[in-house]
């Protein structure tokens, strides 16, 4: 089995990726790989795991909607009806499954970061957050918010930066009038500290927003 940390492994997967996705997506993947490695250096995480997961995160992005559903089916993945109706969010899930089978030397840390790069999850590890952030902030991504978020790298802690990027994506989905994955609220709430506003003592007025 090839050492997944070796340059040889990276170069071989890089060449395969170039055949799997278009030139734009390939460049994006290299950008995510470099950005993830740099974030890992800054935040003291595993740089090689971040670099490899960044390279491979869009491994299955070359499939169209029917193609990605067929891919999930071939892999024997059971999808909820909700996910079947959202084929654009599936490529990370199928990639993690397929890569884990094809390259059993890849550690769970790398596969989880690939799996979670689109929808996020509760209890994201440092590597998961790093790849999620790198996907949004790699040099090919443009826009005022992206520039603002880039300036926070190294200033905000990793969790705050992740939440800023997550919030940015959620807003974009709403602005674009795309459907929202139903677990998004659960995932967001799992990172929220207990909020004072919900914990304050009982309001003497049982209808706190005022009577008509
Ligand atoms: N919580 C969510 N609910 C629904 N769609 C989402 C959610 N998060 C991300 N998406 C969508 O999933 C698609 C793929 O995301 P991703 O792989 O991160 O993007 P990209 O293809 O730009 O790298 C995008 O269209 C994005 O808007």
From TrEMBL:
Pfam families: HD (PF01966). It catalyses: P(1),P(4)-bis(5'-adenosyl) tetraphosphate + H2O = 2 ADP + 2 H(+). InterPro entries: Diverse_Catalytic_Enzymes, HD/PDEase_dom, HD_domain, HDIG_dom, YqeK. The gene is yqeK. Residues 25-140 form the HD domain. This is bis(5'-nucleosyl)-tetraphosphatase (symmetrical). It comes from Adlercreutzia shanghongiae. GO terms for molecular function: bis(5'-nucleosyl)-tetraphosphatase (symmetrical) activity. Keywords: Hydrolase, Iron, Metal-binding, Nucleotide-binding. The keyword Metal-binding applies. NCBIfam families: bis(5'-nucleosyl)-tetraphosphatase (symmetrical) YqeK, HDIG. Its EC number is 3.6.1.41.
